[in-house]
Amino acid sequence: MSVFCGYRLYLIFFWQWRKNPQFFYNKEKPLIIGHRGSPAYFTENTAPAFQKAIEQGVDGIELDVRLSKDKQIVVFHDKDLGRLSNRNEKIRDLSLSELQTIVLNKTRRQTEETHIPSLNDIVPFLGCIRVLNIEIKSDSFFQGHDIIRPLIQFLNKHQIDDKCIVSSFNPLILMKFRIKRPKTIIGFLYYRRKLFHGWSNMIWMLRVQPEALHIHYSLLNHWIVRWARNKGVKINSYTINKRDIYHKAQKQKVDGIFTDNIEYLK
Prior knowledge:
Layout: H1 2-13, E1 31-35, H2 47-55, E2 60-67, E3 73-75, H3 96-99, E4 131-136, H4 148-158, E5 164-168, H5 171-180, E6 185-189, H6 197-208, E7 212-216, H7 223-230, E8 234-238, H8 243-251, E9 256-259, H9 262-265
Parallel strand pairs: 1-2, 1-9, 2-4, 4-5, 5-6, 6-7, 7-8, 8-9
Antiparallel strand pairs: 2-3
Helix pairs in contact: 5-6
């Protein structure tokens, strides 16, 4: 029993897991990553939103992915269309071709129509950014895993391991991804909607062995951030949309920042 306890203490306080290289970080200041593109100007997770973010000078873009009915990877955050269109179907119940005919709601600054892109539609932007964060969405702990195989095929085809982070709130998906494709840079999204969330997330991080911890800015003073730094994990914070919060995050030496309001931080 004492040996087992000693081993657990070793894992928690001393063990360092091997991490993939992450050359896209800037030692002098945090990366600015457009959260779903530039959603203050264009409908989130659309090609114009990503193009606008690039024009605003971001270091990278963040996007969300799900599978369509015909098992194509689409770029969309919600499980259904209700918030961003006048339709209510679930993404998984429509094919890619059906999804791409839907006109999405506009922002107040927007005049042109936008549509749901596939992940392949993002390829033209890859040469314009230092980092791409692909967040896998799942509606429950055991759902959403079928996206792993086509996403691995996408990464194998485009060879963007030097600039791509795959993240998720679902640690089981991240574990499977780590096993199936060890060279992928993993971003562990911190989940706090549970009792003793610090210890729960720490245990999952020990299992997933991520390169980065993605955590809300309100938790940057939490002990889990200090623990992760001691493990050599990069700290990326979301969603920082105000200058004062940005300056506080800079003082706390975060490595990357996800933002909706790019112009406020540049």
